[in-house]
Specification:
Elements (H helix, E strand, L loop, with lengths): L11 H6 L8 H8 L4 E5 L6 H12 L23 E5 L8 H19 L10 H16 L3 E6 L3 H4 L5 H20 L4 E8 L5 H5 L5 E3 L14 H6 L10 H8 L12 H9 L15 H9 L10 E4 H5 L8 H7 L4 E7 L5 E6 L3 H16 L3 H17 L2 H13 L15 H14 L3 E8 L2 E9 L2 E10 L11 H9 L11 E10 L4 E9 L5
Parallel strand pairs: 1-4, 1-5, 2-3, 3-4, 11-12
Antiparallel strand pairs: 6-8, 7-8, 9-10, 10-11, 12-13
Helix pairs in contact: 4-5, 4-7, 5-7, 12-15, 15-18, 16-17
Length: 527
């Protein structure tokens, strides 16, 4: 009989007591707990962080029965137990500094009651109460204290749309996290986890001993499921599955080690009769991220070949949010390759991890960049897919003109987003990417670079985009965009791939805010 799936279960006791599937992460946990250390881990939402925190709690509290048959069972000294303080901001939404302070007071009181210690001074401020809790727990149990913090950054992220409020909340969190530095001598182990990584200066107030294992290859698989996990632990549930398709949809998260699947996707995929859907993405709301892209007029095709420094991925703060940093930390981008740059600086090539994220993220970007209604967007997506999948350029031209004509331009009266060539390229990119087409933006040849190469099915489209700013555009012969493709022979590299190749020149007009001329040439298929 197949074991039950731990869908939505974040406690080790519930999983083990109810004979649910548990992927044994204790080999990596064992590496961590052998040292008196302070760890920080950033992972996207729904990645198993809360279960990992709870596993540490059960281990340090000595709940031996929960670890039977696991790797760590024979290695851990069960004669020792430690007082554990757990701080968890996962539940609810905090919308002010006052609400945050009240929540922290409740969390400290709950820990006092669970540990059976009394505060010496109920009138102390929050740092004083937290300090007192650590000291009293150390005194009562005769062991150093373990501090576990889950969703450490959620109060800030809850207010990220409101920078001033987010900054106030950040200062409130400093109140509690700064205590860890002063009480270091009384701490056995500290583990903090969340989605984002804020700078140490802005949030941790000198907590320099915090070891960041977010991009440590030794701990790359501490959250998430590996391919081996699926083929062994989930073998019965996934018997006969198309592994290549499953990988394409849900694998690909890379933290400088073996790639992993998001656990939430796999559990929902199995329980949903193995239907391929956007399980993980649908649980989040990237609206702030989309707004940020709009505000910065981000050139969306850049998401395909994104090279960044370690500094950009390292941390972010509410006063200066880089959308790429947020995309990476939230799980919408992942690492494809790491290498040393020309100056010796560690560099990363980023990519969208898999088909689920690619389709869903670009669908949201379409909403943000076009304000198109969901029903209309779906219709246009189907028509764009049919056009490029069948090589019907006349239909594609009609669909694109209807798309841009339907954009409510009043939404862009306060920004210059539509007044650049990059905006039109971004909208086209988002539509093509949402259809899982293979896109090479600014595709380089020995003659220069074309704006975009799009591959779907048996067709390859080499596209050049121009923006005309004249008040009354008159169609040009020849089409300037198509002429550039031909003059530079941008399509040369695709002539021998056994597919039908089209050269496509698109001209948009700034005044009309639409596609005003589109011409194409089909090249002879050759092998």
């Amino acid at each position: 009989m197949l074991k039950k799936l731990p869908i939505g279960i974040n406690t080790l006791s519930s999983i083990r007591d109810n004979d649910m599937i548990y992927v044994d992460k204790t080999p990596l946990i064992w590496q961590m707990v052998q040292q008196t250390a302070r760890f920080f881990l950033s992972r996207p939402r729904r990645f198993g962080k809360s279960l990992l925190v709870d596993t540490f709690k059960e281990l340090f509290e000595g709940n031996r029965a929960l670890f039977e048959a696991l790797y760590i069972y024979e290695k851990w000294d069960w004669s020792k137990t430690y007082p554990v303080i757990k701080i968890d901001f996962a539940s609810g939404t905090l919308q002010s500094r006052k609400q945050l302070d009240e929540r922290i007071e409740i969390i400290l009181t709950e820990n006092q009651q669970r540990l059976g210690v009394e505060s010496c001074n109920e009138r102390a401020d929050i740092p004083g109460k937290f300090t007192d809790l650590i000291l009293k727990a150390r005194e009562k149990y005769g062991q150093k204290v373990v501090v576990l913090v889950d969703e450490y950054d959620k109060p800030i992220l809850d207010n990220i749309d409101y920078p001033e409020r987010a900054a106030e909340v950040r200062e409130g969190l400093k109140n509690i996290y700064s205590v860890l530095k002063g009480q270091d001598a009384h701490l056995q182990f500290v583990f903090m986890t969340g989605v984002t990584k804020f700078s140490k200066v802005s949030l941790f107030s000198g907590l320099n001993q915090l070891k960041d294992i977010t991009l440590d290859e030794n701990y790359a698989t501490i959250c998430g499921y590996t391919q081996t996990d699926l083929e062994t632990t989930f073998a019965g549930h996934l018997a006969g599955v198309d592994w290549a398709q499953l990988k394409t949809w849900y694998n690909g998260y890379q933290f400088l080690g073996e790639a992993v699947y998001n656990p939430y996707d796999i559990l929902l995929f199995i329980s949903g009769n193995r239907r391929y859907r956007n399980y993980w993405f649908e649980t989040g709301n990237p609206s702030f991220l989309i707004k940020l892209f709009q505000q910065k007029a981000y050139f969306l095709p850049d998401l395909e070949q994104l090279e960044v420094s370690e500094e950009i991925l390292d941390s972010f703060d509410v006063e200066a949010i880089d959308p790429v940093t947020l995309l990476f930390q939230a799980g919408y981008l992942t690492i494809e390759k790491a290498y040393a740059g020309f100056s010796g600086q560690f560099m990363f090539l980023l990519k969208v991890p898999n088909r689920e994220v690619r389709q869903a993220l670009n669908s949201h970007l379409i909403n943000g960049y076009t304000q198109t209604l969901a029903s209309e967007k779906l219709k246009i997506q189907h028509q764009v897919f049919d056009s490029i999948n069948q090589g019907d350029l006349a239909q594609l031209q009609t669909v694109l003109q209807r798309l841009f004509a339907g954009i409510p331009w009043r939404n862009f009266t306060n920004n210059d987003l539509p007044n650049s060539e990059g905006y039109y390229a971004s909208v086209l990119y988002a539509f093509f990417a949402s259809l899982n087409a293979i896109i090479t933006p600014e595709d380089t040849t020995n003659q220069g670079q074309v704006d975009m190469a799009v591959q779907l099915g048996e067709f390859i489209y080499v596209m050049e985009i121009k923006l005309d700013k004249s008040p009354g555009y008159q169609a040009q012969t020849p089409n300037s965009a198509l002429q550039q493709i031909q003059d530079k022979d941008y399509a040369q590299k695709y002539r021998h791939q056994g597919k039908t190749v089209f050269e496509v020149g698109l001209v948009f007009n700034q005044q009309q805010r639409n596609l005003v001329q589109m011409d194409w040439r089909q090249l002879t298929k050759s092998r």
